[in-house]
Amino acid sequence: RRKGPIIAVATVAVVGLVAIGAVVVTAGDQYPDEWDSRVSELVDFIESERGLAFDHAVPVEFLSDEEYSAETRVDASSVTDADRTAMEEDSAALVALGLVPADLDLLEAGNDLTDSGTLAFYDPTSERVVVRGDELTPALRGTLVHELTHALQDQHFDLEQPPPEDTAGAS
Q1: Strand 60-63 relative to strand 128-132: parallel, antiparallel, unpaired?
Q2: Rounded to an integer, what distance in angstroms lies between the CA atom of residue 132 and that of residue 143?
Q3: What phi, psi does 130 have (nearest 5°)?
Q4: Predicted local confidence at residue 130, as pLDDT
Q5: Cα→Cα distances 42→59, 74, 75, 140, 171, Å
Q6: DSSP letter for each residue of 112-160
Q7: What's the pTM value of the predicted model, to 2 decimals?
Q8: From CA 171, how far away is CA 166, in angstroms rounded?
Q9: Helix (H/G/I), strand (E/B), else coil: 103
């Protein structure tokens, strides 16, 4: 009679250990073994200038203009009601100050700026650098140094971690 619960607990324990093992084994697959050869010289420069070494390489994805636009633009259907309200309030303030026209669509303007106004970005959530095009112009090289520096900072200082609470007034 007592063997049934023991077998059940043992089975759950084995399944749990297998699941944990799978997570640990696949977690290392997120980073490439080495830097993309197009950015390795930039990585060396960053490490030298910052006096810090990268813990690991990060994926650098070179995308077409269309692919890059799809990565940078926010779909209006994914905007929450709270975000939409905040955008309307921000837009109203900018209109009241005479800084933008009354018919400005803040979401579309933000999408246009993020899309056409950037050459690359570092995403701390996925820990990757996304790049528009693959021709390493001087402008793109400078942008990649900037974005790869964000990756280095993230590895050493965790960009996703919330800032510490202000405890100056606490007793």
Answers
A1: parallel
A2: 11
A3: -110, 130
A4: 97
A5: 14, 30, 33, 11, 47
A6: HHHHHT-SEEEETTTTEEEEE-S---HHHHHHHHHHHHHHHHHHHH-TT
A7: 0.71
A8: 12
A9: coil
